[in-house]
């Protein structure tokens, strides 16, 4: 391997790392607020990419049907729980919030497809279209068992991924698609080396979004509420923060991140209905490097995963994923060694 | 008819039904039964590992795959007999499980299940990328198993082999759970400290359980390879692992039978969906996956106990398997006793013990000794450092500096488990009992270090004499604390005060030289306290030495021979109760000084 190759692989790794960074932030955000390891994160990203591909080929994205189905389920769940609690008066508001609000981006997406809008509008519509997915899923699947153990939530989350990838196949079919580049041109570095505009865009987006993330967390009340819930759920509740509401905020933010990831990688990778899983899992390795709680360590982990992946693919393209996932075991060992456990009873699955 | 008789009848009926099934079922149904048997083997491993041992695995299908590919490769590429493939497959699965387990089983909390996703994925990817294993096309033309002149090539023929293995695996697991290693496995969820306190190593118990579950998966893999006679990576990936977990959860993780019921439920339903869905839609294959995932989620929402959970509620114990107290038969030779040191000889010496937590000095230069045959009390106001001292001398926490000698041996750097094995038994301030185990089983766990039977001996029922000795000893200790009549009740049903007494019985079952009690009288009523005092005096009379950490002054003053008083991490006074009571410094510490 020459230095040139190493440099190319390094840049490539950085671009991958940027994607894993954004996904990792989303995973950590959801886990720290709700204790859910949100495995379907990558699926949401894939849906955004496939929606954009549909717009580009002049079709109406199937995501609309999926979002509306989920909205219907979430509305039914919410109305059901309101009726059980005897709060029927709040049903109209619940229908507006869970049924009509998610329909807004759907209408927008429909209009975009009908009137052949410019690329920027298509991108915005694709991202907005997937934003309701995670909150709606959370309302149906996770909110009713919010107090279950991390383990139960993890199993549910894995099952949910398989459900979503099944839905993905049903709605989008098995064909892969790739969208046109978002940024043309390239950046010349030195004499014989250039970086494509797409890579620059990916890295820049990751930096800007992480900075934005940091500002929201440090400077806004909503961000502080999220942090408070992450630190101590009961304590947050005592000072008037509603865990269910902060959880929805976290899912919404994460869904937005997933949407952005989807449109960022769609031009460089051929996306299939189930491509998101592997992206999510790698981001997940990064998030575990941060112990599922630390944002800065997740960033470091994301870049490490990206670089390891790009070098691994140089040595063995077929085995790169196996290498990246095997990386998880030493990382877990290190994490487990670093955190001292209180001697708590093991979690019981069947009670 | 007793519940044991009814239980045996149900088992006998089930065995008869399975034995006769091929006579009435068609070829297709027999194939389905074969799949159920293979699935039940994997699910059985998961019920043991996840349901009983509390360690969730998302990678069980990878072990099925290792065994299936191992035997497939040996019989196709090397042309050897499937009967040589079996030991090869089990060896490879066992060694892989041992290596993976040694790496990951020390992980705490949710890190362990997460790591199983990592290796579960990686191993499945390995199958699809190795030339010797046919990459994504897999290996075909695997020879069927031959039994003498018969070739077990069709479903009817291999049926009996599969179900014989399933039956033996269930019998092995059933025997295992009702044994010394089985009790340790059932104690795993109580935490590593609980097991260490009875002289067991949680990591090794979990490791042996993990390997056992993998070997069950390996058996299933071997059967799978030679039943289907074709292997490819897809049936061994993460999705398949989740499906096995679904079987275990659907059947009920709390019950061995859950594995069989769950495998039958999942595979029958899958089969049913495959029949029904094409009638409704053209995209049946996709809907099937969706229906399954949705079902799994619904199950975890509404019925985490699985089908057997419902059955257990409905039958209310009318079909319960024999419990430990019902297995107790006449007299056997008692377990060997430890020689207790002569009264008055020093057995425990703490010298200059220091424990710092960051900048806080919780225990500062504390020294005291305990002599054989006495009851010594360790008291002090809240925050005096009693509990930390307790953890230091039982080696639950490492000491910053200082030295502890027990029976002439320096135990300062020893593990809690080794100290327990030397004859230092303890109880816990926050009671650590297994609520779903009977009183007798909880106490029998205490005798762990005095006995030897391992997983293999227990599973093959070669441990029955020792098991009788353990149960008899546990029963004797229960009688000693006055709970002998309630041996069959579940520990979780006792009030807190009685649970504390039960912990003493468990500690006594270890045949200790020194009994260290952490606030045993907390939560007891006056009568119960008196009974506890009498019990402790009686134990002293029998030569047991007792160190007691306690809040209740009245209780301690009447009981102990000597007191050590701590305040702000340091030793304040040491002496007989009357002298301590009269000491001004002690009065100041408890009541505030007069000035």
Task: Briefly say what this structure is.
The complex is a heterodimer of chains A (351) and B (595). Chain A is mainly α.
Describe the structure.
The complex is a heterodimer of chains A (351) and B (595). Chain A is an all-alpha fold and 351 residues long. Helices cover 72% and strands 2% of the residues of chain A. Chain A has one domain (3-173, 184-338). In chain A, strands 1-2 form a two-stranded antiparallel ribbon. The relative contact order of chain A is 0.20. Mean pLDDT of chain A is 83; it is low at 341-351. Chain B has 595 residues and is of the alpha/beta class. Helices cover 56% and strands 12% of the residues of chain B. Chain B contains 24 helices and 14 strands. In chain B, the strands form 4 sheets. Chain B has a 6-stranded mixed beta sheet with strand order 10-11-12-7-13-14, sandwiched between helices. Chain B has a 4-stranded antiparallel beta sheet with strand order 6-5-8-9, covered by helices on one side. In chain B, a hairpin with a 2-residue loop joins strand 8 and strand 9. In chain B, helix 1 (3-24) packs antiparallel against helix 6 (155-177), helix 3 (60-76) packs antiparallel against helix 4 (82-104) and helix 6 packs antiparallel against helix 9 (202-228). Chain B is elongated. The mean pLDDT of chain B is 88. The interface between A and B is large, with 47 and 55 residues.
């Amino acid at each position: 391997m020459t230095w040139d190759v190493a440099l190319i692989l390094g840049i490539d790794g950085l671009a991958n790392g940027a994607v894993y960074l954004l996904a990792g932030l989303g995973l950590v955000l959801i886990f720290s607020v709700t204790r859910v390891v949100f495995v379907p994160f990558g699926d949401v990203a894939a849906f955004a990419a496939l929606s954009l591909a549909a717009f580009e080929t002049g079709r109406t994205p199937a995501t609309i049907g999926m979002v509306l189905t989920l909205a219907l389920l979430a509305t039914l769940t919410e109305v059901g729980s309101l009726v059980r609690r005897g709060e029927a008066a709040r049903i109209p508001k619940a229908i507006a919030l869970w049924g009509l609000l998610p329909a807004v981006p759907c209408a927008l997406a429909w209009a975009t497809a009908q009137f052949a809008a410019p690329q920027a509008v298509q991108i915005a519509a694709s991202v907005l279209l997937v934003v309701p997915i995670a909150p709606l899923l959370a309302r149906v699947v996770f909110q009713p068992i919010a107090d279950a153990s991390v383990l139960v939530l993890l199993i549910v989350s894995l099952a949910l991924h398989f459900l979503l990838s099944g839905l993905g196949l049903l709605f989008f079919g098995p064909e892969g698609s790739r969208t046109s580049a978002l940024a043309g041109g390239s950046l010349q570095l030195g004499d014989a080396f250039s970086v494509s505009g797409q890579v620059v865009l990916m890295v820049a987006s990751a930096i800007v979004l992480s900075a934005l993330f940091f500002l929201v967390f440090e400077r806004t009340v909503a961000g502080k509420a999220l942090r408070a819930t992450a630190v101590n759920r009961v304590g947050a509740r005592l000072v008037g923060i509603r865990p269910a509401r902060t959880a929805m905020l976290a899912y919404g933010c994460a869904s937005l991140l997933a949407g952005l990831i989807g449109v960022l990688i769609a031009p460089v990778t051929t996306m299939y209905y189930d491509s998101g899983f592997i992206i999510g899992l790698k981001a997940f390795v990064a998030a575990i490097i941060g112990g599922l709680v630390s944002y800065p360590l997740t960033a470091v982990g994301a870049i490490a995963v990206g670089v390891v992946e790009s070098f691994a693919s140089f040595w063995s393209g077929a085995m790169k994923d196996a290498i990246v996932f095997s990386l998880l075991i030493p990382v877990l060992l290190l994490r487990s060694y670093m955190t001292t456990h209180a001697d708590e009873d093991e979690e019981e699955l069947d009670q | 008819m007793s519940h044991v008789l009814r239980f045996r009848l149900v088992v006998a009926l089930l065995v008869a039904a399975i034995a006769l099934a091929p006579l009435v079922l068609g070829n297709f149904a027999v194939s389905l039964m074969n799949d159920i048997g293979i699935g039940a083997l994997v699910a059985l491993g998961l019920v043991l590992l996840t349901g009983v041992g509390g360690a969730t695995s998302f990678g069980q299908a990878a072990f099925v795959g290792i065994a299936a590919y191992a035997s497939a490769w040996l019989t196709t590429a090397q042309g050897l007999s499937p009967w040589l493939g079996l030991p090869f497959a089990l060896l490879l699965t066992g060694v892989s499980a041992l290596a993976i387990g040694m790496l990951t089983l020390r992980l705490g909390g949710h890190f362990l299940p997460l790591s199983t996703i990592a290796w579960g994925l990686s191993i499945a990817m390995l199958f699809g990328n190795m030339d010797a294993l046919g990459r994504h096309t897999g290996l075909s033309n695997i020879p069927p198993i031959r039994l003498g002149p018969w070739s077990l090539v069709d479903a009817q023929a291999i049926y009996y082999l599969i179900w014989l293995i399933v039956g033996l695996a269930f019998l092995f697991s059933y025997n295992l759970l009702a044994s010394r290693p089985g009790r340790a496995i059932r104690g795993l969820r109580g935490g590593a400290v609980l097991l260490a306190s009875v002289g067991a190593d949680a990591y090794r118990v979990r490791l042996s359980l993990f390997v056992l579950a993998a070997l069950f998966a390996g058996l299933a893999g071997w059967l799978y390879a030679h039943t289907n006679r074709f292997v490819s990576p897809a049936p061994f990936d993460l999705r398949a692992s989740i499906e096995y977990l679904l079987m275990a959860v659907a059947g009920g993780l709390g019950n061995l039978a859950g594995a069989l019921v769950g495998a039958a439920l999942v595979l029958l339903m899958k089969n049913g969906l495959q029949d029904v869905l094409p009638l409704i839609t053209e995209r049946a294959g996709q809907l099937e996956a969706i229906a399954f995932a949705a079902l799994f989620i619904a199950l975890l929402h509404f019925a985490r106990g699985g089908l057997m959970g419902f059955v257990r509620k409905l039958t209310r114990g009318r079909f319960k398997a024999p419990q430990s107290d019902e297995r107790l038969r006449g007299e056997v030779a008692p377990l060997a006793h430890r020689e207790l040191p002569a009264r008055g000889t020093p057995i425990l010496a703490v010298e200059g013990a220091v424990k710092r937590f960051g900048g806080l000095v919780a225990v500062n230069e504390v020294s005291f000794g305990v002599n054989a045959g006495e009851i010594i009390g360790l008291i002090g106001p809240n925050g005096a450092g009693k509990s930390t001292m307790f953890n230091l001398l039982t080696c639950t926490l490492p000491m910053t500096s200082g030295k502890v000698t027990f029976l002439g041996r320096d135990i300062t750097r020893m593990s809690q488990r080794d100290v327990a094995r030397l004859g230092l038994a303890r109880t816990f301030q926050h009671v650590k009992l297994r609520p779903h185990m009977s009183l007798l089983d909880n106490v029998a766990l205490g005798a762990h270090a005095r006995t030897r039977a391992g997983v293999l001996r227990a599973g093959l029922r070669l441990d029955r004499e020792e098991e009788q000795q353990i149960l008899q000893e546990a029963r004797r200790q229960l009688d000693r604390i006055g709970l002998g009549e309630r041996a069959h009740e579940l520990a979780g049903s006792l009030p807190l005060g009685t649970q504390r007494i039960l912990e003493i019985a468990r500690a006594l079952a270890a045949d200790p030289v020194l009994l260290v009690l952490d606030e045993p009288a907390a939560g007891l009523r006056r009568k119960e306290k008196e009974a506890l005092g009498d019990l402790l005096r009686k134990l002293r009379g029998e030569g047991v030495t007792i160190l007691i950490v306690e809040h209740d002054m009245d209780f301690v003053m009447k009981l102990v021979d000597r007191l050590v008083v701590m305040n702000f991490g340091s030793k304040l006074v040491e002496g007989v109760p009357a002298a301590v009571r009269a000491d001004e410094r002690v009065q100041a510490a408890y009541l505030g000084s007069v000035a």
